[in-house]
């Protein structure tokens, strides 16, 4: 069995991967996540996921498969993590009553042979019409922090969502089915 390294500081990614039949180590990448305004969201998440995986692949001195991901919310423009409560208020207000996309880039690097695979997954999420009171109540839970689009569907944020089309784990930050497919196809490995 190959060594697996999850290059992530995200507790959500760790929890999603821990459910499966896979021993892995966590080493968070230190890259500065810079989004250029003219880039397409798919390009952005794949580039950032690759930079995270590559950062760790270059720093470790052993054979391993390094897995990294990057998630953004997209509605006319890219919504990353909110800077503060006001930013979260504006983000959630702009998502109210509309469909948006959650896009996660996934990067896998096998350091033993230098193989690099980058892909992405998309999930459509429709929000309810949200009153300013509802948005404020949600923000007061504190769960908006550190999450793309200022919500977490896995927590109180579920109350904001009317429906989703596509994989749930992708919204939480690690598209498990896509990861399994890529591992199977390119690295002859399964996570279940
Ligand atoms: C939309 C949404 C995002 N998120 C999270 C997933 C990601 O952790 C975060 C997006 O930030 P990312 O920059 O993708 O990841 P991160 O900084 O948390 O972790 P790392 O780069 O070290 O891997 O938003 C949820 O947890 N639930 C949701 O419903």
TrEMBL record:
NCBIfam families per record: maf
Cytoplasm is among the record's keywords: yes
Hydrolase in keyword set: yes
Gene3D superfamilies xref list: 3.90.950.10
Cell location: Cytoplasm
Protein family (similarity comment): Belongs to the Maf family. YhdE subfamily.
GO biological process: nucleotide metabolic process
Family matches, as SUPFAM superfamilies: ITPase-like
Site location (Important for substrate specificity): 12, 71, 154
Entry annotation: catalytic residues: 70
Any one annotated GO CC term: cytoplasm
The name this protein goes by in its record: dTTP/UTP pyrophosphatase
Catalytic activity: dTTP + H2O = dTMP + diphosphate + H(+); UTP + H2O = UMP + diphosphate + H(+)
């Amino acid at each position: 069995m190959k060594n697996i390294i999850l290059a992530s500081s995200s507790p959500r990614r760790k929890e999603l991967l821990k459910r499966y039949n896979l021993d892995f180590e966590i080493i968070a990448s230190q890259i500065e996540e810079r989004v250029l305004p003219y880039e397409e969201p798919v390009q952005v998440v794949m580039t950032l996921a690759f930079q995270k995986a590559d950062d760790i692949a270059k720093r470790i001195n052993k054979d391993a498969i390094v897995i990294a991901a990057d998630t953004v919310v997209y509605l006319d423009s890219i919504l990353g993590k909110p800077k503060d409560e006001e930013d979260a208020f504006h983000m959630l207000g702009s998502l109210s009553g509309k469909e948006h996309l959650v896009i996660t880039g996934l990067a896998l690097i096998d350091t033993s042979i230098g193989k690099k695979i980058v892909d992405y997954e998309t999930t459509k999420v429709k929000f309810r019409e949200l009153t300013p009171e509802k948005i404020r109540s949600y923000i007061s839970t504190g769960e908006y922090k550190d999450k793309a689009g200022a919500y977490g569907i896995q927590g109180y944020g579920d109350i904001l969502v009317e429906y989703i089309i596509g994989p749930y784990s992708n919204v939480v930050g690690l598209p498990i089915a896509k990861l399994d497919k890529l591992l199977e196809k390119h690295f002859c490995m399964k996570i279940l």
